[in-house]
Amino acid sequence: MLSNRIWLLFSILLSFVHNGIAGLTSSFIRSEWPSTDIPLDNEAFALPKGYNAPQQVHITQGDYDGKAVIISWVTPDEPGSSQVRYGISEGKYDFTAKGTVKNYTFHNYKSGYIHKCLVDGLEYDTKYYYEIGDHDSARKFWFQTPPRIDPDASYKFGIIGDLGQTYNSLSTLEHYKRSGGQTVLFVGDLSYADRYQYHDVGVRWDTWGRFIEQSAAYQPWIWCAGNHEIEYMPYMGEVTPFKSYLHRYPTPYPASKSSDPLWYAIRRGSAHVIVLSSYSPFVKYTPQWRWLAEELKRVDRKKTPWLIVLMHVPIYNSNEAHFMEGESMRTVFESWFVKYKVDVVFAGHVHAYERSYRISNIHYNVSSGYPYPVPDKSAPVYITVGDGGNQEGLAGRFRDPQPEYSAFREASYGHSTLEIKNRTHALYHWNRNDDGKKVATDAFMLYNQYWGTSKRRRNLRKNRLYSVIVNRPLSERL
Ligand SMILES: [Fe+2]
Questions:
Q1: How far is 242 from 427, CA to CA, in rounded Å?
Q2: Where is the Purple acid phosphatase N-terminal domain (predicted)?
Q3: Is pLDDT of 139 > 50?
Q4: What CATH number corresponds to the domain at position 225?
Q5: Which pTM value belongs to this model?
């Protein structure tokens, strides 16, 4: 049960959304740990016991609709087995799946043996136990499959970006683990290993893999690439973009008819999640542009009402850091986001938190004379969650005055959750890592762009959701 206090907060925030009054710049100044990476010998990066024990275990969705996972891990000493043993009872593995193994070099670093195994044909809404590794070094984990594709499936996503591997990163991860989130939507910039040189680049990818295992071995992380994944380092002789990232973090891109692991889509419960690449060609006629045009046509809001887009560079950002960097993608894709009524666009890159009103700038062109974003009920809410806590620190300089399109902004570390309740309502919350004081963080009820408006919503009010709506507080019904 939500307290009256929280409902009051929702009402206030909703009135901001609806009335379009000036946004908030939070004055909250949080204490933070230094933005330095956790030392290599810290327990956050502890090696599992045993010869050649699997490490850096992580899973992601393995198909379009949530009946498969890709399990990935690294063995340090020799290839060993790529087999996953799994089943629905703890310690009883009735099924096996066979994966593949490979390694790569990066300058003078040679990676461990990276295993990838597709486990498919799973039942929905089921807890699976799995075991990987050989003999005494075998390790056990579990994961829960999502509900079947259903417009009213409830589901709680976490959103994390720009995580890195500092003590602030650890705080973000620990807070997220307590949030009840079931799947992470990761908006790019994973390890920040590219802040290192030579052999240490690979070493810091390994530590990051061990760091996130505490969450990523037990629930899918949906990957989106950021600039720190590019690793174009000619001085080291490394000029293949995304080399480390692509070797280590597979995505189910063929399932959504994508030709590239950097952009793809998944459906999970009642959500259709589209992942875009800010650092791959996206202008008209490029593969990403053509793919997105087709993928948006495949979205069926009657089956998956929630349309979510992930990208690394925010399209709307009023921080001095990376200001206007998303403008090129905005000019190409924003009109589609409005046409297809995307519910929310999550991005990272800027090391702070910011949320927009529903606005668009699709009437502007270089000669139209209408250069300002305007309120647009069909537009997504744009949310920047680049506040995971990496070694580059916070982006504390917001542009002044706060632009009209900006609803709430604050430079603190944290993560977000999007708790889908049914086809019409989702509870959104931004979670600052450390509060200490009673200061409101950003929370509101997100109404679905397809089912939450117009005639469809009126019909639902009359019928199935009547009881839900009459139980809402008066302030919500006005
Ligand atoms: Fe970035």
A1: 34
A2: 54-145
A3: yes
A4: 3.60.21.10
A5: 0.91
